[in-house]
């Protein structure tokens, strides 16, 4: 269980400006690159709604379990996110991440996400569309 008490604020808070939206996107990128499911899950409301590819998740428990499983098979994961658009309490990002599977095959995964935030700055909805492309190790762009 987290040592944080709820509810709490997770700045920057909506409504977003260009600067605060960029900060929110960078904070998400930084957190995801830790590959720490518990840390990442704290950015979401306890009842957060997710769509990730063809999977639908509800709540921090399912999100944490999903991320544990994801990073157990997406090895040496490295992510970059870019602000695409924002308004009010919503942010849209595009992203790319690279990883390899347990056979050594490298992948680049591209996609976009639509985020919606609660007033306290926690994400209440995340909808992600993602496509994968097999790459050679030499073709990697997102080096640590």
Automatic annotation (TrEMBL):
Alphabetical list of InterPro entries matching this protein: DUF1348, NTF2-like_dom_sf
SUPFAM superfamilies: NTF2-like
Pfam families from the UniProt entry: DUF1348
Protein name as annotated: Nuclear transport factor 2 family protein
């Amino acid at each position: 269980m987290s040592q944080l008490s709820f509810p709490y604020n997770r700045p920057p808070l909506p409504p977003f400006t260009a600067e605060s939206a960029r900060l929110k996107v960078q904070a998400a990128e930084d957190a995801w690159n830790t590959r720490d499911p518990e840390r990442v899950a704290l950015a979401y409301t306890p009842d957060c709604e997710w769509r990730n590819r063809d999977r639908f998740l509800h709540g921090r428990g399912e999100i944490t379990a999903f991320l544990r499983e994801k990073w157990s098979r997406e090895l040496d994961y490295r992510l970059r996110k870019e602000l695409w658009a924002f308004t009010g309490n919503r942010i849209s990002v595009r992203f790319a991440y690279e990883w390899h599977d347990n056979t050594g095959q490298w992948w680049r995964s591209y996609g976009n996400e639509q985020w919606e935030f609660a007033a306290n700055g926690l994400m209440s909805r995340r909808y992600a569309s993602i496509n994968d492309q097999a790459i050679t190790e030499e073709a990697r762009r997102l080096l640590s």
